[in-house]
TrEMBL record:
It comes from Costertonia aggregata. Signal peptide: none annotated. GO terms for molecular function: rRNA binding; structural constituent of ribosome. The lineage of its organism: Bacteria, Pseudomonadati, Bacteroidota, Flavobacteriia, Flavobacteriales. This is Large ribosomal subunit protein uL4. One of its GO terms (biological process) is translation.
Amino acid sequence: MKVAVLDIKGKDTGRKVDLSDSVFAIEPNNHAIYLDVKQYLAHQRQGTHKSKERAEIAGSTRKIKKQKGTGTARAGSIKSPIFRGGGRIFGPRPKDYTQKLNKNVKRLARKSAFSLKSKEKSIFVLEDFTFETPKTKDFINVLKSLGLENKKSLFVLGDSNNSVYLSSRNLKQSEVIINSELSTYKILNANSIVLTEGALEEIESNLNK
C-alpha cells in the first residue's frame, strides 16, 4: 500500500512510501489485541493499596472489660475489627498486577491495531521534522495543516526530539512518543496516527522480526 509523504504544512512532498502489508494489511486478531491492551492497563496499576490489620493498629493490648457478667459479647482488645478504629478484616494488601505476554502475541496485536487504523485511512506519514525552539503554537499549526486540530492524535517519532515533545505537552488531544514507547493501547486510543519516515522504518523492522 502506497501512502503520500506530507510535510508539516500538510502538503504532498511528491514522494510516496510503501506500507508493508505484513504490518498494515493483515487480518486483525481481536484476541491478541485484547490480551495486549489488558496487559498495558494492568501495568498502569501501582498496586500500593494497603489497610492496617489488627496486628498493625496502635493501641492498648489490655482486656477492655471483664469476660463475664456484662451481658454483652466478650472482648479482649480495643484493636478488634468490630470496634471503631480497629483493624480491618481482609483488607487490601500490596499486589503486583504485572502480566506476562509472549513477544509474538504483542507483535501480532500491534500489527492488528495498525491494520485496523489503515483500513480506516487514519494513518499519515510525515517527513522528519523539528522545531528550533519549543512552541505549542508551532505544533498547533501542524495539527491544523493535517486537519487533526480537534481529534485525538498520536505522533510517533523515529528519534527523541525534545522540541517537538515539549511543544505538544500541553495539548490533551495529542501525544508525541518515540517508537520504543509505542503500544497497542495507544494506537487504538488515537483517532489518527502520524508516523514520521524514520519511525515507519523502525516500526516495520521491529514488527517483521
